[in-house]
């Protein structure tokens, strides 16, 4: 594990996944009521394929790309203001959630579909949890209203993405060497 | 095709704002964001004036700057409406109509909140309009130096940021290629059942992920072959802090701390 952390290859992988998460904002698949973007798919994949430390690092890179002014946050937003604003909690959630996904998956050498799915659900709970807390504190909404604005519209799309991410992770993982 | 060169909002220029050290500009934006969250209506108006002055100094047009807040507008509008309709207090005539009511308190609270967020987004966008991405990376590396106590090297982060920046156009091309290859075979991302759409996602993401790993591996090998090692590095363009930078940083820190204590 330690060699994985320190290797140049791991560093490059993490920055690639940061870039992929960023581009995920531009790949949209129409679905009602809210179209799906693929950011959280790639952040989940980063956790599942790179492990906790590198996965979280890739999401830090993603957030920093946005803070630098690239329009890579949901809906083409950018800047430090987004991180501190009402929807910034989701971005912190990406870092924490990806870390959790990686840690849960790393426990086993070859985790099965159930474990991968479970880890991604836990990851999404972290994303939503932190997202709602910041939304309700910063935008001065009650928790119930924050859930109505910040969770319910995205549930269907996220369920779809979790399944897709788990399938992809299992198919791709044998091709990756560290 | 998504236009790669539209990513980022930097406009080159020679104004004194452009020429400042990126670290001092970043610190000013951080101080501003603290002030914006803690301040009342009067100070918020002053912050708006300050941002307008910076805009004039760096010779940016109003139209270009306003474009930066457009993506966030729908969400701001939603927040405003939630506050407008869901705050208790004195109703504005002719409300309450039926069960709907708008109050003075809700109007004030909603407007103040949205103004705060607009200022927050504006200040950060101005930073990226007057600072090139590579300068911002240098500034962030300086800013994140204290992270070394957590075992994270800020120079590693800076290298990773440049790598990610460098590879985004290549990845975009890759995505386009895969999408066109799928279209040529008659795939349609916009139609079909849920299962079909999930399959459409995987058919895009699997080749993308595999190709990305291959590219990353090649890049790592190329870097190793050229003797890259981690640790402190030098820059093509060394930036130095001018006296003005120290004054600006000092003022920003004082203003930030003061607003944190006094309001």
Describe what this molecule looks like in 3D.
The complex is a heterodimer of chains A (178) and B (263). The termini of chain A are close together. Chain A has 178 residues and is mainly alpha-helical. Chain A is globular and about 45 Å long. Chain A has helices at residues 2-6, 8-24, 39-50, 52-67, 80-84, 88-106, 113-138, 143-150, 155-172; strands at residues 28-29, 36-37. Chain A has one domain (2-175): Arp2/3 complex 21 kDa subunit ARPC3 (Orthogonal Bundle), CATH 1.10.1760. In chain A, strands 1-2 form a two-stranded antiparallel sheet. Chain B has two domains: 4-132 and 240-262, no CATH class; 154-225, no CATH class. The radius of gyration of chain B is 24 Å and the shape is flat. Chain B has helices at residues 16-19, 22-38, 41-57, 62-67, 73-86, 104-130, 133-143, 154-184, 194-225, 243-262. Chain B is an all-alpha fold and 263 residues long. Chain B is 68% helix and 0% strand. The model of chain B is unreliable at 1-7 (pLDDT under 50). The chains are: A mainly alpha (178), B mainly alpha (263). At the A-B interface, helix 2, helix 3, helix 4, helix 5 and helix 9 of A face helix 2, helix 5, helix 6, helix 7 and helix 8 of B.
């Amino acid at each position: 594990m330690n060699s994985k952390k320190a290797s140049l290859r791991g560093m490059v992988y993490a920055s690639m996944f940061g870039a992929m998460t960023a581009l995920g904002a531009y790949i949209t698949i129409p679905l009602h009521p809210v179209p799906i973007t693929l950011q959280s798919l790639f952040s989940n994949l980063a956790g599942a394929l790179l492990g906790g430390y590198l996965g979280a690092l890739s999401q830090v890179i993603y957030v920093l790309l946005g803070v630098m002014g690239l329009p890579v946050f949901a809906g083409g937003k950018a800047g430090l203001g987004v991180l501190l604003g009402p929807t910034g909690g989701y971005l912190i959630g990406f870092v924490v959630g990806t870390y959790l996904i990686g840690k849960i998956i790393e426990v086993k050498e070859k985790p099965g579909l159930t474990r991968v799915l479970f880890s991604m659900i836990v990851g999404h709970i972290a994303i939503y949890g932190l997202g709602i807390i910041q939304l309700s504190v910063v935008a001065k909404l009650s928790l119930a209203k924050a859930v109505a604005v910040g969770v319910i519209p995205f549930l269907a799309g996220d369920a779809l993405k979790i399944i897709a991410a788990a399938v992809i992770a299992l198919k791709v993982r044998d091709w990756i060497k560290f | 095709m998504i236009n790669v060169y539209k990513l980022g909002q930097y406009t080159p220029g020679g104004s004194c704002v452009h020429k400042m050290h990126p670290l001092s500009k970043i610190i000013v934006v951080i101080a501003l964001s603290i002030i914006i969250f803690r301040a009342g209506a009067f100070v918020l108006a002053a912050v708006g004036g300050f941002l307008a002055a910076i805009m004039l100094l760096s010779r940016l047009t109003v139209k270009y700057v306003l474009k930066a807040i457009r993506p966030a507008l729908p969400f701001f509008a939603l927040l405003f409406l939630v506050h407008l309709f869901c705050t208790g207090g004195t109703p504005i005539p002719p409300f309450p109509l039926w069960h709907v009511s708008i109050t003075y308190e809700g109007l004030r609270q909603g407007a103040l909140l949205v103004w705060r967020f607009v200022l927050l987004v504006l200040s950060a966008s101005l930073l990226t309009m007057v600072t090139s991405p590579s300068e911002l990376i240098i500034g962030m590396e300086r800013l994140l130096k204290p992270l070394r106590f957590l075992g994270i090297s800020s120079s590693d982060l800076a290298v990773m940021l440049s790598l990610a920046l460098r590879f985004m156009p290549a990845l975009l091309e890759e995505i386009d290629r895969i999408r066109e290859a799928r279209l040529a075979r008659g795939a349609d991302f916009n139609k079909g059942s849920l299962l079909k759409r999930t399959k459409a996602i995987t058919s895009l993401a699997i080749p993308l992920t595999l190709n990305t790993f291959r590219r990353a591996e090649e890049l790592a090998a190329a870097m190793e072959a050229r003797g890259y090692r981690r640790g402190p590095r030098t820059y093509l363009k060394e930036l130095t802090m001018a006296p003005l930078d120290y004054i600006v940083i000092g003022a920003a820190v004082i203003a930030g701390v003061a607003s944190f204590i006094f309001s």
